[in-house]
Structures are given as structure tokens and as C-alpha cells.
Amino acid sequence: MDEITLTGGTLAANADQPAGPEGVNAAHNHSHGHSHGHGGQCCHGNQGSANDYADISPSLDNLADASSEELVRALSTLLRFGRYEAVENMLDQVKETKGSAELGEVLKHFDDGGHSLFHWSAKRVDDPRFLQKFVELVVEFKMTDLLNAPSNDNVGMRPLHWACTEGIIPHVALLLKNGADMEAKDSSGCTPLLIAAQYGQVEVVAYLLKNGANIHAVDTSKDSALHWAAYKGSIQVCGLLSYYQQLDWSTQDTYGQTPVHLASLRGHSSVVRYILLHLQRKDVLFQKDKNERTPLDLAIHKNRPTVERILKEAMMEAKDPRGHFLRETLLTFVKNFFTAKTWRSWLGFTGGMDEMDVPSRFPYFFMIFNYVVHIAFFVTVFAPVANPGKGIMWDLSGWLSWNFLVAIAAWYFFYKTVTTKPGYLDDSTPTIGKWRQLYEETLESYADDTMAQNIKVQLCHTCHVARPHRSKHCRFQRKCVLLFDHFCPFVDNTVGLYNYRYFLFCLIFTAIGIVSYSITFYTYLKRYTDGGNSFPWGMFALGMIPALCGIPVSGMSIYHIQLTMVNLSTNEHMNMRKYPYLYIEEENRKKYKNPWFKGWMGNIMDRMQPSERCYVIPEDHQSLLHSKGDEIV
After folding, report:
1. Per-position DSSP letters for 130-151, written without gaps between them
2. Same domain flag for 310 and 270
3. CA atoms of 447 and 460, how far apart (whole Å)
4. Residue 293, SS3?
5. Which terminal CB of the chain, N or C, has fewer other CB atoms within 10 Å?
6. What is the percentage of the chain residues whose pLDDT exceeds 70?
7. Rounded to the nearest 10 degrees, what angle do helices 159-166 and 169-177 cross at?
8. End of a domain among 356, 375, 397?
9. d(CA 181, CA 163)
10. What is the pLDDT of residue 30?
11. Burial readout 440-455 (b: 16 or more C-beta within 10 A, e: otherwise)
12. Which residues fall within 8 angstroms of residue 38, CB to CB, at 6 or more apart?
């Protein structure tokens, strides 16, 4: 049996080693493996070794005698080490000792790896001075055609391609402004837009499209940016491209594969779900590539169980949606409930290299199990309502009543946490029009180089909204959530703006309930054994399960009480450095200052009475923010 490649070609089944990236044969090395083809030279070649650095010293001391090749090697090494002052000094010395003509020859040369100085400077995103310096020189010498010179290797990328891999708009803008070709192709036919899509650089994709890049561009395998985004699993790029509504999910490449095929064979569950939501024609699910394989066939062949399940459900519904739930979904669920494969999925143990776009259900079921055991012990052991004569703790009726009330409160807040929407940025949000309009306006601003380089608004290209502060896209719910805290598998829901208060009380009452239960359980065991009975090991083993949860639940309760007191979310606390709105500029230093801190009582009231004020920065704090972009929202 032939082994299918990522391009739709075939490989001998007994091949021990793949001939190309992920099993792609030599003839197809650049299709669906292109970024791997140049990754070692482009992405991971920024740093030189100590020996490389030592080798440049003769050239630095003897510039007059150094050849162009030696000078290029020295400049490339300095560039990769980030020594801008040394690079600038060497360029000035070459110009002074050898003249402008010789410096021009140096700029034309490629290093031993086949890359020019412009390639390496395009990768120095940490210091834009390198690229600015070399661009100034080619403009001065009227040699701007060097900005479009392909590398002398089998990849043939231009400096603009390299800049697109890094996702830094200023570098891309500088190259385009000075003559770089936006539609230049490498040896596999990839334009900068396709390269940006491969690397998931969604902001660069938006910038290129708004500045006239051809959204319909394809490589030599007829793969578009949408094909590449689906193959690479970049749901943000898929979302941005679908926003323009110019590319079709059913378009087939040279190998007959659609974006659905590519996402399926790679196991990108979230992308597959996203495509299914935006498909106008469900017959795309049944399209076959040149090897007569549907997306489902590829998912099965590549051992992608999550994608396989998603596609099977979608295909069954597409065949006949009438009675689909009763006839197919429900019956299939019942049939699969007792299979090891289903339980592995619920426990989060998926085979192959599948992406998990749904959480493990085990913590949720475990939580319910603990609540059931708690209540069961209460009504059958501690206070046996069906057989009151066997009760040995009726004299502690007040304590038992307390246990009962706490357990009911924990159940209630658990139910409210599970069933309450956390606050999605969708049509249910009264101000959704504002955030969608801001998304459109921000995309339009990418056409302006100056504005594009200073945009601080956080965009969600999957939901097509500008995200307010403190919000985040939940990969499990597949929606943006206001005041995102975290996704909690124990409640099988995202915790956000509107259900955080229920989650907090659920933790508190569950912790109190477990402590009360543990005391009651100990008291019962002591009385039971004091009455001359042997120790009930079976009851002890079952009853200890809820008791052992007391330590982690109590710890979580204390942690979230502390977060509430300082008005921070779990996401903000764990990733504090990522959010500039939590810092102000003071005496040329960044200092932590939470714009929503209102004193401990005000902070508690904020979380108990959720509203827009919980995520909109107060006006008196705006002037303290160093980043101008934060003032937008």
C-alpha cells in the first residue's frame, strides 16, 4: 500500500526515512513543507557560533587587503551577532578605504549559505537599524534591485520573504517603500503573502492585503494563502482571509486537495470546525483529491481521531439533517459510550498528533461524582432518612443541617457556573457593533504605513472583532470572552465576566463543604468503631475521595479570593507582562498600576456586579499609560 504524502502524492510504504519534510518526496519538497525547507537557513540562522565570530577578526584588521567574499562573511557574522556599531564602522571603513564602487560590490555578494546582507538584516527584528542602514546604502548607490535579489539556494527567497516570516510590519513597510516587489515569488512560487500565511503572521497578512497584495496568488502547486493557513493550523489567518470573502474553501490545488483536506490530514481540529461553520456548500466534505480520498479518509489514514469524529458528524448531518440527532448523533453516542476510544477522548488521551480543541470531560465528571458521593453519604450514612433508626449522629442535628445547607449552596453555584455564559463578544453583547466597527476601521488603517506600525488594538480575526481590554479568545468555546479568567475543565465552562462570581462562590462553598464533610466523616467513623463495629474499609475508601479534594479546592479558593481583592483575572496574573495596560510610565520606568483597582471593597463589588466598567479603562488612568494605542479602547 502506498503511503500518502502531505501533497497528495504517494510514497512507497516500506520507506524507512521520509525523503522530504514530513514524508514529502523530493519532487514535492516545497509543497506543504516549504517553510521547513528554509527554516534552518532563515529562521534559525540568526545566531553565529563563537568560532564564526573569531574568524572575522583578520578581515576587521586588514580591510584594505580583504576580498569582497571575506567582507561579506565578516559583515554577515557581525549582523547575526547583532553588532550594529561594528557593522556600521566596517561599512564606513570600506567606503573610505576602497571607495563606493567596492562597497557596492560587497552589497551584491552573497555569503556561503547563499544569502545577502539584506536577507540577514531583514531578520534582525530586534534592531531595525541594520535594515535601515542597508536600505539607505542601496538607495544612495541606486541599487534598489538588490532588495529583490533571491537567495542563491534551492529556496530562492527574497529579503521581503524573510521579513514576512518574522511578522514585523516596519521591516515589510521599509522594503516595500524602497522597491521590494510585493508579488515576488520564491522557487516554489510563494509570494510574501503566502509566506506570511505559512508562518501565521496575521498582522502582516492584513498589512499586505490592505496595501494591494493579490489575495488570489498561488504557488507552483496552486495552493493559495487559505490552503497554507489551513495546512499550518493558523485559525487567525483563516479567519482574516474569510473576512474578505474572496477565496473559496472548495478550491482544489494541483493534488486535488482543498483547505479542508489539508487541515484534516494535519489534525487541526479547530481549523476544521471553523471551516465547517463557514461552508456554504456541504458537498466540500465529500470532495476527493487525486488519490480518491475525502478529508475524512485523510484524517483516518493519518490517525486524527478528533478530526475524524468532527467530520463524521458533519457528513452524517449533511447527508440528511432530518432526524439527525435521534437517528445518528444519539445512537452513535450510545453505541460509542462503552468503547475505549471514546473514553480515551474524554480523558484527553487522543492518538496520533491530533489537536485537542475540546477539553477533557473527566474533571467535570469527577466533580459531579464528588458532589453525588457527598450528598449520598449525607442522606444514607450521616442522616439516613430512609432508615432513621440506624442513624448514630442525630444528636448533631444542627451540625448536620449546616452540612446540608452548605452542600446545597455548593450545588447551586456549581450549576450557575456551568450554565451561565461567561460573556461572549457576539450578538448577545449590547455593544458588539462598536467592537466590530473598530475591527473594520483598524483593518482599513493597515493601508497607512505609519498607522499600521503603531496599532495597539487587539484584533480577533476569528470572531472579526476588536477585543476590549481583559478579553481573550477561548480556544475551547471558540469565542472571545469578556474579562477572560480561564477555562475550567471542572465546570466544563469558561470563567469570565458574568459567571466569575458564581465560580468564586462555588469554590468557597465547596471548600467549606469538604471541610465540614471531612469533620463529619471522621466523627461518624469514630462513633461507628467505638460502638464495637469493625472498621468499614470499603466505606472509608469511597468516603475519602471527596475529603482528599479539600486541599486543592481550599487552595484555589484562597487564590481566587486574593485575585478578587486586587481585581485581577487569572489570565492577567499569570501573564502580567503581556498586558501594557497594567503598567504606566513613571520616571522613564514601567511601574505596575492596575487601572481597575478600587480598594478591596470596590474590587469585590466590581466582580459581584459585572458591567462594562470592569473592562473599560477609567479616563483618569488613560493619561498615565505610556502606549498611545491603549487610549483607543
Report:
1. HHHHHHHHHHHTT-GGGGGPPP
2. yes
3. 18
4. coil
5. N
6. 81
7. 160
8. 356
9. 13
10. 37
11. eebbebbeebeebbeb
12. 153, 155, 157
Structure-block grid coordinates of residue 286: 465529500
Does residue 350 form part of some domain? yes
> Which amino acid, residue 154?
N
* Same domain for 416 and 310: no
Q: Are residues 44 and 23 in the same domain?
A: no
Q: Which long-range contacts (CB under 8 A, 24 or more apart) does 562-565 make?
A: 564/504, 564/603, 564/604, 564/607, 565/600, 565/603, 565/604
Per-residue pLDDT tens digits for 343-397: 555 555 555 556 767 778 889 999 999 999 999 998 888 888 888 878 888 889 8
Do 363 and 345 fall within a single domain? no
SS3 of residue 197 by DSSP: helix
pLDDT at site 10 = 34
Give SS3 for 458.
strand
E strand or H helix at 486 = strand 486-488
Cα separation, 466 vs 403, in Å, equals 47
As a whole number, mean pLDDT of residues 294-302 equals 94
The grid cell for 381 is: 450514612
Q: What angle (nearest 5°) sits at the alpha carbon of residue 388, between those of residues 382 and 389?
A: 110
User: Tens of pLDDT along 535-546?
Assistant: 999 889 998 988
State yes or no: pLDDT of 273 exceeds 50.
Answer: yes
The answer on pLDDT for 233 being more than 50 is: yes
Cα–Cα distance measured from residue 258 to residue 226, given in angstroms and rounded to the nearest whole number: 9
H-state helical runs in 378-454: 397-419, 432-445, 449-452
Sign of CA dihedral 83, 87, 90, 96: negative
In sequence order, what DSSP letters do the residues of 89-135 get, joined into one string?
Answer: HHHHHHHHHH-HHHHHHHHH---TTS--HHHHHHH-TT-THHHHHHH
Is 263 found in the same domain as 117? no
Beta bridge partners of 458: 467
Among the three residues 162, 192, 214, which one is the final residue of a domain in this structure? 214
Full domain range(s) for residue 24: 3-30
Segment 278-306 mean pLDDT: 90
Can you say whether the dihedral through the CA atoms of 387, 392, 398, 399 is positive or negative?
A: negative
Q: What is the dihedral of CA 36, 39, 41, 44, to 10 degrees?
A: -150
Q: Which residues pair with 479 in a beta bridge?
A: 474
Q: Which of 209-213, 333-337, 394-398 has the lowest mean pLDDT?
A: 333-337
Full-model pTM? 0.79
What is the number of structural domains in the chain?
Answer: 4
